[in-house]
Amino acid sequence: MGQLLSDIFGIRVASFVRCGDLWISPREIETHISRYSEHLFFYTHFLEWEVSRRGSCFLAGYRGRSFAICTYHQVKNFNPEFIAVQGEGEHRYVTAGAMYWDTRLDSADWDDAIDFAAFDFSQSVGQGLVDRGRFCSWLGSEYLRSKEKVVGAIIVGFADSDQRDDLEDDESTGSKLTHMLLSKRIFVGEYCGDSYQNEIFLIKYFGDNIGSHNGLSGSPVFLICGDAGDFCVKFGGLVVRAGNGQFHCLKHTAIRRLLDQSFGDSRKRIV
Are the C-beta atoms of residues 235 and 222 closer than 8 Å to each other? Predict the structure, then answer.
């Protein structure tokens, strides 16, 4: 995949590409950024089926706090107190301390431009239940500015069709989930500017077919910017819709706006 990225984006002439505070080889881009895409879970409290999958999310550090960011439609109608990510060691699944979303989504008028939510895992990170290194540390500084040249996009997510569940028969309860095999997929595409509204941009996949798009909502989008051998990786936004070889993505500006407001009282908080 590293050679593919170099060929498509024309960055073979660059010895290194800046990614946050690091300079990395073009071949290492997808490996480096894929760590920030994680699977989101709903903790069921059932012994037979401990968690259910809720698709992809982006782990990001912002202004000293640690968030899992996803689309709101992934977690709508699920108790936010039981939304979880995988923990460290014996802590298999760790739930968030708070959830933030735009309260206009509670009305009947749906708007993709505000279809996202943020779960605060700062306390769990501070307690060592979730490793701080799993959270992207440059969300607040490395994002697309106006007039910057975008040469390509990388999306990292968990398509439902790629995931596998190991089950065993239980005489008293029927099937029991014993193991989840989680698999990330990397999509490389063309940045096409605004989509069907100002807060949404379009990525066209370079491959023949995305396949099933289920599970890809909430996937982080990274943009390769620059030219003339001077390239950098920037956070572009979050996938809100996918299909027919296209990803419609929420811009980073809306996401950062919600995170900024989460430090005040202007958005809902569930503890």
Answer: yes
